[in-house]
Write a structure and sequence with these properties.
Number of helices: 4
Distance between the termini: 77 Å
Low-confidence stretches: none
Number of strands: 3
Helix content: 25-40%
Mean pLDDT: 90
Shape: elongated
Strand order of the largest sheet: 1-2-3
Order of helices and strands: HHEHEEH
Radius of gyration: 20 Å
Strand content: 15-25%
Length: 118
């Protein structure tokens, strides 16, 4: 009979979890947000806080940007609510009129910041 090598369970075994538990970035503001949302995710039963925390750990590639036009489409008939994006909000020059929105995001491009504040 042929012998095939198995997994040495005593020396580490199978990889149980590959998801991040902390951000790779050393950005102090990101680390403060992580500290806040770690606390909120632990002390509240809100799924929202857990999702935000998970997304704060993600790499820049996995935190895609969102255009302001897409934001307007998603926030249609929800003008009284706050939009939360764990990523960058970008401008869309094709959009001529800008409705009043309340947006919370990690980053805004300079052109979209000027449009939101105007």
């Amino acid at each position: 009979s042929t012998f095939s090598m198995g997994i040495d369970l005593r020396a580490g075994g199978r990889i149980k979890n590959k998801s991040r538990t902390a951000p790779q970035s050393e950005n102090v503001y990101l680390l403060l947000l992580v500290k806040l949302y770690r606390f909120l995710a632990r002390r509240t039963d809100s799924k929202f806080n857990q999702i935000v925390l998970k997304r704060l750990f993600m790499s820049k590639v996995n935190r895609p940007c969102m255009s302001i036009s897409r934001m307007v489409r998603f926030m249609n008939k929800k003008e009284d609510k706050i939009a939360v994006i764990v990523g960058t909000v970008t401008d869309d020059p094709r959009m001529l009129t800008m409705p009043k929105l309340t947006i919370c995001a990690l980053k805004f491009t300079s052109t979209v910041r000027a449009r939101i504040l105007a």
